[in-house]
Amino acid sequence: ENMKKEQKDRHLDLLLMLFTDVMGNGSYFVFYGPMSYVLTDMIETQIDEHSGYDPNIISRKQQLLPKLSAIIKEL
User: How many CB atoms are closer than 10 A to CB 33?
Assistant: First the structure.
């Protein structure tokens, strides 16, 4: 609920938190905002409307940002 409030208060299109498994077994995502659909299309497993898991994303810089940037550029 705090993330949802923060996203609305700041008028953000997308607010994302990423939690990477320290053993290198993927990442958990929590996201809110009108552009959340970008992440639901990108990550492998959607847990619910605002969260998901992807076993193939471990690095934000090398894996997440290039994928996210490419999807946003296509919009």
Answer: 20
